Structures are given as C-alpha cells and as structure tokens.
Amino acid sequence: MENSYADNDEKNKLNPGVHIQQEALGIFIRDGKLALMLNKRDKYYQFIGGISKVKSGDLKDSLVAKFKDEVNLTAIPDSIKKYSQVSRVEKQANNDIQIREYHFLFVDCKEKNLDVIISKDSEFEFRLIDPKSALKANIEYLSSLKNKKKLIDVETGIIQKLIDEDSYFA
Q1: Could you give the 3-state DSSP secondary structure of residue 75?
Q2: What's the domain range around 109?
Q3: Which of 7, 32, 34, 147 is deepest in the core (most CB within 10 A)?
Q4: Is there a domain that residue 143 lies in?
Q5: Is 79 domain-assigned?
C-alpha cells in the first residue's frame, strides 16, 4: 500500500490535464455490524475515510488519520488490509481528466466501547448497523437521484459485495 500522493503529483507533471485523486475508505466490522457514517439529511450511509493528504502519502496513514479525525477512533495500522479498489475516470468541463481511485481497506480499532462515538461533523452520525439495513437505505437514496455518478453508488456496491460474500457478518 505504498500509493503516494507525491507519486501522483509526479504522474500529473508527466501527464498535464490528468489529475489523480485517491481515497482510503475503511471497512470496520464489529459484532457482525458495519461501522458507517449516516448522512442525517439524506439518510444514506457511507464508509469512514476519504481524501487525506498526510505527509507520508501512504493509504494506511491516511485511513488512520481519517478515523481519528472523523470519529476519534484509533485505527490499528497492522490491521489494515486491502479489500477492493474501484477507479472512476471523469472528463472535467475544461477537458482535463480526473481519475478517482477508491481504496476500500479492512480495519480494526483499539476502542472496545463504540456506544460513545460521536462524529465531529454534525451532518453525519457514526453508526454500527446491520449491512442489509444500510444497503436498503442507500438503494432508496440512489433511486431518488437523477445522476448516480457519486461515491455513494460505489460504496453501495461495496456493501452489496460484502453481503454477497457472506463471511464477514456471521
């Protein structure tokens, strides 16, 4: 997992007009439930994580920082393992190309009591939720959108994939 934002900056210099954005998103499972962030306004769930430009540029470091920053959880770096990567290529209005790389990583946290976790972002609420309930909420939200070119579409697919593999929530 040595992907680096510095490497991406070098690639961008070699390919002007091509911009690479990486996001580290944590799959944190506890007691058969998935730790997700509920968007309180739109009632959909998303993974903890996102874009983080930590100095090392490492995806593990980014995920650890995001868990601490978003929900004050201590992610265990040695527990972080790659699950899946999804890339999306988008043409921007100025004809530049935006490549978004979503890295979904399994992670565990040191904290045992998750009943007291409070998101630092008032728009989102930390939840340990049955994955099928999260999937249902996200599908309902997606059906209300005209343009499904959002990260929520990718995240919903990952929740479905985890459920289909049937070994993570037993």
Answers
A1: strand
A2: 5-165
A3: 34
A4: yes
A5: yes
CA distance 161 to 104: 12
User: Which residue type is seen at 136?
Assistant: K
Whichever domain contains 144, its CATH number is 3.90.79.10
Q: At what angle do helices 151-165 and 131-143 cross, to 10 degrees?
A: 150
Please choose, from the candidates 170, 164, 153, 160, the residue with its C-alpha nearest in 3D space to the C-alpha of residue 44: 153
Cα torsion angle, 28, 29, 30, 35, sign = positive
pLDDT along the chain (170 residues), means of 10: 48 69 94 93 93 72 92 95 92 86 95 75 88 96 79 92 89
For residues 108 and 79, is the Cβ–Cβ distance under 8 A?
yes
Q: How many domains does the chain have?
A: 1
